[in-house]
Amino acid sequence: MEQSPVIKFFRGEQIPLELHKVRVVQKLNLVPIEERLKAIQDGGYNTFLLSTRHIYLDMLTDSGTNAMSDRQVASMLVADDAYAGSQSFDRMRDAVEQVFGTKFTAPVHQGRAAEHIIFQAFVKAGDVVPMNYHFTTTKAHIELPGGTIEEIFTDEALKIRSSFPFKGNIDIAKLRGLIKKHGAAKIPFVRMEASTNLIGGQPFSMANLREVRKVCDEHKLILLLDASLIGENAYFIKQREPEFRTTSIKDILRGMCDLCDLIYFSSRKVSSTRGGAITTNRQDLFDKVRDLVILFEGFLTYGGMSVREIEAMAVGLIETQDETVISQSPSFIKYLVEKLDARGIPVILPGGALGCHVDARGFLPHVPQAEYPAGALAAAFFLASGVRGMERGTVSSVRDANGNDVLADLELLRLAVPRRVFTLSQIEYVADRMTWLYENRSLIGGLKFAQEPKVLRFFLGKLVPTSPWPEKLLAKFRKDFGDSL
Ligand code: F0G
User: Fold this and answer.
1) Distance from the alpha carbon of residue 266 to the mean position of ligand 1, in angstroms
2) Does pTM surpass 0.85?
3) What is the pLDDT of residues 66-91, one digit of tens each?
4) 81-103 burial string, b = 16+ CB within 10 Å, else e?
Protein backbone atom coordinates (compact mmCIF):
# COMPACT_ATOMS: atom_id res chain seq x y z
CA MET A 1 0.00 0.00 0.00
CA GLU A 2 1.48 3.28 -1.04
CA GLN A 3 1.29 6.03 1.54
CA SER A 4 2.05 9.62 0.69
CA PRO A 5 4.73 10.93 3.06
CA VAL A 6 3.39 14.48 3.16
CA ILE A 7 3.19 15.40 6.84
CA LYS A 8 2.36 18.94 7.89
CA PHE A 9 3.65 20.45 11.12
CA PHE A 10 1.55 22.70 13.33
CA ARG A 11 4.19 25.45 13.36
CA GLY A 12 5.00 25.13 9.71
CA GLU A 13 8.55 23.74 10.05
CA GLN A 14 9.82 21.56 7.25
CA ILE A 15 11.14 18.49 9.05
CA PRO A 16 11.71 15.25 7.19
CA LEU A 17 9.94 12.67 9.32
CA GLU A 18 11.07 9.06 9.35
CA LEU A 19 8.38 6.50 8.58
CA HIS A 20 10.47 3.63 9.90
CA LYS A 21 12.01 2.73 13.23
CA VAL A 22 15.51 1.56 14.06
CA ARG A 23 15.74 -2.06 15.16
CA VAL A 24 19.37 -3.03 14.63
CA VAL A 25 22.18 -0.56 15.31
CA GLN A 26 25.92 -0.39 14.78
CA LYS A 27 28.19 1.46 17.16
CA LEU A 28 30.16 4.31 15.59
CA ASN A 29 33.53 5.82 16.45
CA LEU A 30 34.22 9.52 16.71
CA VAL A 31 37.98 9.67 17.25
CA PRO A 32 39.91 12.82 18.23
CA ILE A 33 41.03 15.15 15.45
CA GLU A 34 44.70 14.21 16.03
CA GLU A 35 43.85 10.59 15.10
CA ARG A 36 41.85 11.81 12.13
CA LEU A 37 44.87 13.76 10.87
CA LYS A 38 47.06 10.66 11.16
CA ALA A 39 44.41 8.58 9.35
CA ILE A 40 44.04 10.99 6.42
CA GLN A 41 47.84 11.34 6.13
CA ASP A 42 48.19 7.54 6.02
CA GLY A 43 45.38 7.40 3.47
CA GLY A 44 47.15 9.78 1.09
CA TYR A 45 44.46 12.46 1.52
CA ASN A 46 42.13 10.12 -0.34
CA THR A 47 38.93 9.31 1.55
CA PHE A 48 38.68 5.96 -0.28
CA LEU A 49 41.78 4.88 1.64
CA LEU A 50 40.36 5.51 5.13
CA SER A 51 39.26 2.72 7.45
CA THR A 52 35.80 2.95 9.00
CA ARG A 53 37.64 2.57 12.33
CA HIS A 54 38.43 6.29 12.02
CA ILE A 55 35.14 7.41 10.48
CA TYR A 56 32.16 8.77 12.37
CA LEU A 57 29.57 9.16 9.58
CA ASP A 58 30.35 7.39 6.35
CA MET A 59 28.94 9.60 3.61
CA LEU A 60 31.28 8.24 0.93
CA THR A 61 28.47 6.61 -1.00
CA ASP A 62 25.00 5.16 -0.87
CA SER A 63 26.32 2.13 -2.74
CA GLY A 64 25.98 -1.00 -0.61
CA THR A 65 25.40 1.11 2.52
CA ASN A 66 21.64 1.63 2.64
CA ALA A 67 19.77 0.19 5.61
CA MET A 68 17.88 -2.97 4.80
CA SER A 69 14.27 -3.44 5.74
CA ASP A 70 13.14 -6.24 8.04
CA ARG A 71 11.55 -7.86 5.01
CA GLN A 72 14.80 -7.80 3.07
CA VAL A 73 16.69 -9.42 5.92
CA ALA A 74 13.94 -12.00 6.38
CA SER A 75 13.99 -12.85 2.68
CA MET A 76 17.67 -13.78 2.90
CA LEU A 77 16.76 -16.71 5.16
CA VAL A 78 14.53 -18.34 2.58
CA ALA A 79 17.04 -18.14 -0.27
CA ASP A 80 17.23 -21.14 -2.56
CA ASP A 81 20.81 -22.32 -3.08
CA ALA A 82 21.26 -23.71 -6.58
CA TYR A 83 23.78 -23.12 -9.33
CA ALA A 84 21.04 -23.25 -11.95
CA GLY A 85 17.28 -22.82 -11.73
CA SER A 86 17.22 -21.17 -8.29
CA GLN A 87 13.77 -20.01 -7.18
CA SER A 88 15.48 -16.97 -5.69
CA PHE A 89 16.24 -15.88 -9.23
CA ASP A 90 12.61 -16.47 -10.22
CA ARG A 91 11.56 -14.09 -7.44
CA MET A 92 14.10 -11.52 -8.59
CA ARG A 93 13.00 -11.78 -12.23
CA ASP A 94 9.37 -11.39 -11.16
CA ALA A 95 10.26 -8.33 -9.05
CA VAL A 96 12.12 -6.76 -11.98
CA GLU A 97 9.12 -7.44 -14.21
CA GLN A 98 6.75 -5.92 -11.66
CA VAL A 99 8.86 -2.76 -11.22
CA PHE A 100 10.35 -2.25 -14.70
CA GLY A 101 7.79 -4.12 -16.81
CA THR A 102 10.51 -6.12 -18.56
CA LYS A 103 10.45 -9.86 -19.25
CA PHE A 104 14.07 -10.80 -19.97
CA THR A 105 16.48 -10.29 -17.08
CA ALA A 106 20.10 -11.27 -16.56
CA PRO A 107 21.67 -10.82 -13.11
CA VAL A 108 25.18 -9.37 -12.78
CA HIS A 109 27.39 -8.87 -9.75
CA GLN A 110 27.16 -5.04 -9.80
CA GLY A 111 26.43 -2.04 -12.03
CA ARG A 112 29.78 -1.83 -13.76
CA ALA A 113 29.50 -5.51 -14.67
CA ALA A 114 26.32 -4.65 -16.57
CA GLU A 115 28.23 -1.81 -18.26
CA HIS A 116 31.12 -4.11 -19.13
CA ILE A 117 28.78 -6.58 -20.80
CA ILE A 118 26.52 -4.08 -22.58
CA PHE A 119 29.39 -1.99 -23.93
CA GLN A 120 31.37 -5.08 -24.99
CA ALA A 121 28.29 -6.33 -26.82
CA PHE A 122 27.22 -3.09 -28.52
CA VAL A 123 30.14 -0.61 -28.77
CA LYS A 124 32.81 -0.82 -31.50
CA ALA A 125 35.90 1.34 -32.06
CA GLY A 126 34.82 4.74 -33.42
CA ASP A 127 31.31 4.57 -31.96
CA VAL A 128 29.81 7.52 -30.12
CA VAL A 129 27.43 7.26 -27.17
CA PRO A 130 25.32 10.38 -26.51
CA MET A 131 24.17 10.72 -22.91
CA ASN A 132 22.89 13.21 -20.37
CA TYR A 133 26.11 12.82 -18.37
CA HIS A 134 28.71 10.13 -17.80
CA PHE A 135 29.36 8.09 -14.70
CA THR A 136 33.04 7.20 -14.03
CA THR A 137 32.68 3.46 -14.64
CA THR A 138 30.40 4.04 -17.65
CA LYS A 139 32.93 6.21 -19.42
CA ALA A 140 35.77 3.78 -18.71
CA HIS A 141 33.76 0.84 -20.07
CA ILE A 142 32.68 2.70 -23.24
CA GLU A 143 36.26 3.72 -23.93
CA LEU A 144 37.56 0.15 -23.43
CA PRO A 145 36.24 -1.13 -26.81
CA GLY A 146 37.24 2.20 -28.46
CA GLY A 147 34.02 4.22 -28.12
CA THR A 148 33.67 7.81 -26.97
CA ILE A 149 31.01 9.59 -24.98
CA GLU A 150 29.21 12.83 -25.87
CA GLU A 151 27.44 14.67 -23.08
CA ILE A 152 24.49 16.65 -24.34
CA PHE A 153 23.10 18.21 -21.20
CA THR A 154 21.11 21.44 -21.12
CA ASP A 155 22.59 24.84 -20.21
CA GLU A 156 21.20 24.52 -16.67
CA ALA A 157 22.92 21.21 -15.86
CA LEU A 158 26.23 22.57 -14.59
CA LYS A 159 24.92 25.66 -12.81
CA ILE A 160 25.48 25.32 -9.08
CA ARG A 161 22.55 27.48 -8.00
CA SER A 162 19.51 26.80 -10.09
CA SER A 163 15.81 26.37 -9.66
CA PHE A 164 15.60 24.20 -12.77
CA PRO A 165 13.94 20.99 -11.61
CA PHE A 166 15.36 18.64 -14.26
CA LYS A 167 19.07 19.25 -14.71
CA GLY A 168 19.43 15.63 -15.89
CA ASN A 169 17.58 16.36 -19.14
CA ILE A 170 19.16 15.82 -22.53
CA ASP A 171 19.26 18.84 -24.85
CA ILE A 172 17.16 17.54 -27.75
CA ALA A 173 18.63 19.96 -30.32
CA LYS A 174 22.14 18.79 -29.38
CA LEU A 175 21.01 15.15 -29.71
CA ARG A 176 19.70 15.82 -33.22
CA GLY A 177 22.92 17.67 -34.06
CA LEU A 178 25.04 14.73 -32.92
CA ILE A 179 23.05 12.23 -34.98
CA LYS A 180 23.46 14.47 -38.01
CA LYS A 181 27.20 14.83 -37.39
CA HIS A 182 28.08 11.18 -36.75
CA GLY A 183 25.23 9.31 -38.47
CA ALA A 184 22.96 6.84 -36.66
CA ALA A 185 25.18 3.89 -37.66
CA LYS A 186 27.93 5.14 -35.34
CA ILE A 187 25.55 5.47 -32.40
CA PRO A 188 24.94 2.11 -30.67
CA PHE A 189 22.45 3.76 -28.31
CA VAL A 190 21.48 6.92 -26.51
CA ARG A 191 22.10 6.59 -22.76
CA MET A 192 19.95 8.24 -20.11
CA GLU A 193 21.09 8.07 -16.51
CA ALA A 194 18.36 8.37 -13.89
CA SER A 195 19.15 10.92 -11.13
CA THR A 196 22.36 11.85 -12.96
CA ASN A 197 25.04 11.03 -10.41
CA LEU A 198 28.04 13.22 -11.18
CA ILE A 199 26.13 16.48 -11.61
CA GLY A 200 24.55 16.19 -8.18
CA GLY A 201 21.96 13.41 -8.41
CA GLN A 202 19.79 15.48 -10.75
CA PRO A 203 16.73 13.90 -12.40
CA PHE A 204 15.39 14.08 -15.94
CA SER A 205 11.71 14.68 -16.63
CA MET A 206 9.27 12.28 -18.21
CA ALA A 207 8.61 14.90 -20.90
CA ASN A 208 12.32 14.90 -21.80
CA LEU A 209 12.49 11.10 -21.84
CA ARG A 210 9.49 11.07 -24.19
CA GLU A 211 11.28 13.47 -26.53
CA VAL A 212 14.46 11.42 -26.47
CA ARG A 213 12.34 8.37 -27.30
CA LYS A 214 10.83 10.21 -30.25
CA VAL A 215 14.26 11.06 -31.68
CA CYS A 216 15.41 7.46 -31.14
CA ASP A 217 12.35 6.23 -33.05
CA GLU A 218 13.03 8.60 -35.93
CA HIS A 219 16.56 7.21 -36.29
CA LYS A 220 15.92 3.63 -35.11
CA LEU A 221 18.27 4.10 -32.16
CA ILE A 222 18.26 2.05 -28.99
CA LEU A 223 17.43 3.95 -25.80
CA LEU A 224 19.53 2.66 -22.91
CA LEU A 225 18.60 3.54 -19.32
CA ASP A 226 20.99 3.43 -16.38
CA ALA A 227 18.37 2.83 -13.70
CA SER A 228 20.67 2.66 -10.66
CA LEU A 229 18.86 5.64 -9.08
CA ILE A 230 15.53 5.29 -10.85
CA GLY A 231 13.38 5.31 -7.70
CA GLU A 232 14.58 8.78 -6.73
CA ASN A 233 14.15 10.04 -10.31
CA ALA A 234 10.56 8.79 -10.22
CA TYR A 235 10.05 10.56 -6.87
CA PHE A 236 11.34 13.85 -8.33
CA ILE A 237 9.04 13.46 -11.35
CA LYS A 238 6.13 13.14 -8.93
CA GLN A 239 7.33 16.15 -6.92
CA ARG A 240 8.34 18.43 -9.76
CA GLU A 241 6.43 17.55 -12.95
CA PRO A 242 2.83 18.76 -12.62
CA GLU A 243 1.40 16.04 -14.88
CA PHE A 244 2.48 13.38 -12.37
CA ARG A 245 1.50 15.03 -9.07
CA THR A 246 -1.13 12.39 -8.34
CA THR A 247 0.47 9.45 -10.14
CA SER A 248 1.87 6.63 -7.99
CA ILE A 249 5.64 5.99 -7.93
CA LYS A 250 4.84 2.53 -9.27
CA ASP A 251 3.14 3.96 -12.35
CA ILE A 252 5.85 6.59 -12.89
CA LEU A 253 8.51 3.89 -12.77
CA ARG A 254 6.63 1.84 -15.34
CA GLY A 255 6.08 4.93 -17.48
CA MET A 256 9.82 5.62 -17.55
CA CYS A 257 10.82 2.04 -18.30
CA ASP A 258 8.20 1.60 -21.02
CA LEU A 259 10.01 4.31 -22.99
CA CYS A 260 13.38 2.51 -22.90
CA ASP A 261 14.69 -0.47 -24.87
CA LEU A 262 17.44 -1.73 -22.63
CA ILE A 263 17.82 -1.10 -18.90
CA TYR A 264 20.63 -1.85 -16.45
CA PHE A 265 21.18 -1.01 -12.82
CA SER A 266 23.42 -1.41 -9.84
CA SER A 267 21.28 -2.83 -7.07
CA ARG A 268 23.88 -1.77 -4.52
CA LYS A 269 21.91 1.46 -4.40
CA VAL A 270 18.61 -0.38 -4.00
CA SER A 271 19.13 -3.28 -1.69
CA SER A 272 22.38 -2.52 0.12
CA THR A 273 24.02 -5.75 -1.00
CA ARG A 274 25.87 -6.63 -4.17
CA GLY A 275 24.22 -7.09 -7.49
CA GLY A 276 22.64 -5.58 -10.50
CA ALA A 277 20.87 -6.61 -13.67
CA ILE A 278 20.38 -6.07 -17.37
CA THR A 279 16.75 -6.20 -18.42
CA THR A 280 14.68 -5.69 -21.57
CA ASN A 281 11.55 -6.73 -23.41
CA ARG A 282 13.48 -7.18 -26.64
CA GLN A 283 14.64 -10.73 -27.31
CA ASP A 284 17.20 -9.52 -29.90
CA LEU A 285 18.91 -7.26 -27.36
CA PHE A 286 18.81 -9.88 -24.63
CA ASP A 287 20.41 -12.45 -26.96
CA LYS A 288 23.37 -10.09 -27.48
CA VAL A 289 24.19 -9.90 -23.76
CA ARG A 290 23.15 -13.36 -22.56
CA ASP A 291 26.28 -15.31 -23.48
CA LEU A 292 28.58 -12.62 -22.12
CA VAL A 293 26.78 -12.80 -18.77
CA ILE A 294 27.59 -16.49 -18.59
CA LEU A 295 31.18 -15.85 -19.69
CA PHE A 296 31.98 -13.06 -17.24
CA GLU A 297 29.44 -13.20 -14.41
CA GLY A 298 28.15 -16.73 -13.91
CA PHE A 299 25.09 -18.74 -14.85
CA LEU A 300 21.97 -16.80 -15.81
CA THR A 301 20.22 -17.56 -12.54
CA TYR A 302 22.85 -16.03 -10.25
CA GLY A 303 25.20 -13.78 -12.28
CA GLY A 304 27.92 -13.50 -9.64
CA MET A 305 25.52 -12.83 -6.75
CA SER A 306 24.73 -15.03 -3.80
CA VAL A 307 21.14 -16.23 -3.62
CA ARG A 308 20.75 -14.27 -0.38
CA GLU A 309 21.68 -11.07 -2.19
CA ILE A 310 19.27 -11.94 -4.98
CA GLU A 311 16.42 -12.30 -2.49
CA ALA A 312 17.24 -8.98 -0.77
CA MET A 313 17.45 -7.27 -4.14
CA ALA A 314 14.02 -8.59 -5.16
CA VAL A 315 12.41 -7.23 -2.00
CA GLY A 316 14.39 -3.96 -2.26
CA LEU A 317 13.12 -3.44 -5.81
CA ILE A 318 9.52 -3.88 -4.77
CA GLU A 319 10.05 -1.45 -1.87
CA THR A 320 11.33 1.14 -4.36
CA GLN A 321 7.69 1.54 -5.42
CA ASP A 322 6.80 2.73 -1.92
CA GLU A 323 6.99 6.51 -1.62
CA THR A 324 7.71 6.37 2.12
CA VAL A 325 10.86 4.39 1.31
CA ILE A 326 12.03 6.27 -1.74
CA SER A 327 11.40 9.77 -0.36
CA GLN A 328 13.53 9.32 2.76
CA SER A 329 16.98 10.03 1.35
CA PRO A 330 15.93 12.95 -0.94
CA SER A 331 14.03 14.62 1.91
CA PHE A 332 17.05 14.43 4.25
CA ILE A 333 19.24 15.75 1.43
CA LYS A 334 16.83 18.64 0.84
CA TYR A 335 16.93 19.47 4.56
CA LEU A 336 20.75 19.50 4.63
CA VAL A 337 21.16 21.37 1.35
CA GLU A 338 18.71 24.09 2.33
CA LYS A 339 20.33 24.49 5.76
CA LEU A 340 23.80 24.90 4.23
CA ASP A 341 22.50 27.24 1.54
CA ALA A 342 20.83 29.43 4.18
CA ARG A 343 24.26 29.76 5.83
CA GLY A 344 25.82 30.91 2.56
CA ILE A 345 27.67 27.64 1.87
CA PRO A 346 27.74 26.85 -1.86
CA VAL A 347 25.82 23.64 -2.59
CA ILE A 348 24.16 22.27 -5.69
CA LEU A 349 20.58 23.46 -5.92
CA PRO A 350 18.02 22.12 -6.13
CA GLY A 351 18.91 19.19 -3.85
CA GLY A 352 18.98 15.93 -5.76
CA ALA A 353 19.28 12.22 -5.09
CA LEU A 354 22.09 10.34 -3.42
CA GLY A 355 23.69 13.12 -1.42
CA CYS A 356 24.39 16.76 -0.69
CA HIS A 357 26.95 18.18 -3.13
CA VAL A 358 29.15 21.02 -1.89
CA ASP A 359 30.68 23.22 -4.59
CA ALA A 360 34.40 23.17 -3.80
CA ARG A 361 35.28 25.94 -6.25
CA GLY A 362 32.84 28.27 -4.55
CA PHE A 363 34.01 27.09 -1.12
CA LEU A 364 37.73 27.37 -1.89
CA PRO A 365 38.12 30.03 -4.60
CA HIS A 366 41.78 30.45 -3.58
CA VAL A 367 42.67 26.80 -4.41
CA PRO A 368 43.38 26.43 -8.16
CA GLN A 369 41.58 23.60 -9.94
CA ALA A 370 44.98 22.04 -10.71
CA GLU A 371 45.38 21.57 -6.93
CA TYR A 372 42.14 19.60 -6.61
CA PRO A 373 39.82 21.78 -4.51
CA ALA A 374 37.21 19.02 -4.15
CA GLY A 375 39.85 16.57 -2.92
CA ALA A 376 41.19 19.15 -0.49
CA LEU A 377 37.70 19.91 0.79
CA ALA A 378 36.95 16.19 1.29
CA ALA A 379 40.14 15.80 3.34
CA ALA A 380 39.53 19.00 5.31
CA PHE A 381 35.95 18.02 6.11
CA PHE A 382 37.04 14.60 7.35
CA LEU A 383 39.57 16.34 9.55
CA ALA A 384 37.00 18.78 10.90
CA SER A 385 34.25 16.24 11.53
CA GLY A 386 35.21 12.59 11.12
CA VAL A 387 32.63 12.54 8.31
CA ARG A 388 33.82 10.86 5.13
CA GLY A 389 32.61 12.32 1.84
CA MET A 390 33.78 11.64 -1.71
CA GLU A 391 35.72 13.81 -4.11
CA ARG A 392 33.80 14.25 -7.36
CA GLY A 393 36.00 16.59 -9.35
CA THR A 394 39.33 16.55 -11.17
CA VAL A 395 40.83 13.76 -9.01
CA SER A 396 37.95 11.63 -10.37
CA SER A 397 38.84 12.75 -13.92
CA VAL A 398 41.71 11.55 -16.17
CA ARG A 399 44.81 12.89 -17.92
CA ASP A 400 44.89 13.65 -21.66
CA ALA A 401 47.40 12.22 -24.15
CA ASN A 402 49.95 14.88 -23.11
CA GLY A 403 49.68 13.97 -19.44
CA ASN A 404 47.69 17.07 -18.45
CA ASP A 405 44.70 16.84 -16.13
CA VAL A 406 41.36 17.03 -17.90
CA LEU A 407 39.75 19.52 -15.52
CA ALA A 408 36.34 18.38 -14.34
CA ASP A 409 33.22 20.42 -15.19
CA LEU A 410 32.36 20.53 -11.50
CA GLU A 411 34.47 20.28 -8.34
CA LEU A 412 32.19 18.65 -5.81
CA LEU A 413 32.41 17.18 -2.36
CA ARG A 414 29.64 14.62 -2.25
CA LEU A 415 28.13 13.81 1.13
CA ALA A 416 26.02 10.76 0.41
CA VAL A 417 22.89 10.16 2.44
CA PRO A 418 22.23 6.43 2.22
CA ARG A 419 18.63 5.40 2.75
CA ARG A 420 17.41 5.23 6.36
CA VAL A 421 20.92 5.17 7.86
CA PHE A 422 21.43 8.54 9.57
CA THR A 423 19.37 10.41 12.14
CA LEU A 424 18.45 14.06 11.86
CA SER A 425 20.82 14.97 14.71
CA GLN A 426 23.68 13.45 12.72
CA ILE A 427 22.65 15.57 9.75
CA GLU A 428 22.66 18.61 12.09
CA TYR A 429 26.21 17.69 13.14
CA VAL A 430 27.27 17.61 9.47
CA ALA A 431 25.77 21.08 8.96
CA ASP A 432 27.47 22.40 12.12
CA ARG A 433 30.96 21.16 11.22
CA MET A 434 30.56 22.28 7.59
CA THR A 435 29.63 25.75 8.84
CA TRP A 436 32.78 25.86 11.02
CA LEU A 437 34.89 24.74 8.07
CA TYR A 438 33.35 27.41 5.85
CA GLU A 439 34.21 30.08 8.43
CA ASN A 440 37.80 28.80 8.37
CA ARG A 441 38.04 28.08 4.65
CA SER A 442 40.98 30.40 4.11
CA LEU A 443 43.15 27.92 6.07
CA ILE A 444 42.54 25.11 3.55
CA GLY A 445 45.13 24.66 0.78
CA GLY A 446 45.56 22.35 -2.21
CA LEU A 447 46.75 18.80 -2.89
CA LYS A 448 49.07 17.17 -5.43
CA PHE A 449 49.49 13.55 -6.48
CA ALA A 450 52.24 11.48 -4.85
CA GLN A 451 51.14 8.15 -6.37
CA GLU A 452 48.81 8.08 -9.35
CA PRO A 453 47.27 4.92 -10.86
CA LYS A 454 46.56 5.00 -14.61
CA VAL A 455 42.95 3.77 -14.46
CA LEU A 456 40.22 5.23 -12.20
CA ARG A 457 42.95 6.97 -10.21
CA PHE A 458 40.57 8.35 -7.59
CA PHE A 459 40.15 4.93 -5.99
CA LEU A 460 43.77 4.21 -5.05
CA GLY A 461 45.70 7.41 -5.78
CA LYS A 462 47.67 9.04 -2.96
CA LEU A 463 48.09 12.80 -2.58
CA VAL A 464 49.94 15.21 -0.32
CA PRO A 465 49.08 18.77 0.75
CA THR A 466 50.85 21.56 -1.14
CA SER A 467 51.55 23.31 2.21
CA PRO A 468 51.15 22.33 5.91
CA TRP A 469 47.51 23.52 5.94
CA PRO A 470 46.04 20.41 7.67
CA GLU A 471 48.14 21.10 10.81
CA LYS A 472 46.93 24.71 10.82
CA LEU A 473 43.33 23.59 10.54
CA LEU A 474 43.83 21.19 13.44
CA ALA A 475 45.29 23.97 15.61
CA LYS A 476 42.30 26.21 14.85
CA PHE A 477 39.88 23.36 15.66
CA ARG A 478 41.52 22.91 19.08
CA LYS A 479 41.37 26.65 19.67
CA ASP A 480 37.65 26.85 18.83
CA PHE A 481 36.40 23.53 20.22
CA GLY A 482 38.76 22.91 23.16
CA ASP A 483 38.84 19.20 24.01
CA SER A 484 35.75 18.30 21.95
CA LEU A 485 36.04 15.28 19.66
N1 F0G B 1 25.79 3.85 -12.77
C2 F0G B 1 25.54 4.77 -11.83
C3 F0G B 1 24.60 5.89 -12.13
C4 F0G B 1 26.14 4.66 -10.57
O5 F0G B 1 25.87 5.59 -9.65
C6 F0G B 1 27.02 3.59 -10.31
C7 F0G B 1 27.70 3.48 -9.02
C8 F0G B 1 27.26 2.65 -11.34
C9 F0G B 1 26.63 2.83 -12.55
C10 F0G B 1 28.20 1.52 -11.12
O11 F0G B 1 27.63 0.59 -10.26
O12 F0G B 1 29.21 0.53 -8.30
O13 F0G B 1 27.52 -1.28 -8.67
O14 F0G B 1 29.47 -1.09 -10.16
N15 F0G B 1 27.79 4.41 -8.19
C16 F0G B 1 28.45 4.33 -6.90
C17 F0G B 1 28.56 5.70 -6.28
C18 F0G B 1 29.76 3.62 -6.94
O19 F0G B 1 29.21 5.81 -5.25
O20 F0G B 1 28.00 6.67 -6.78
P21 F0G B 1 28.51 -0.36 -9.29
Assistant:
1) 6
2) yes
3) 999 999 999 999 999 999 999 999 99
4) eeeeebebbebbbebbbebbbbe
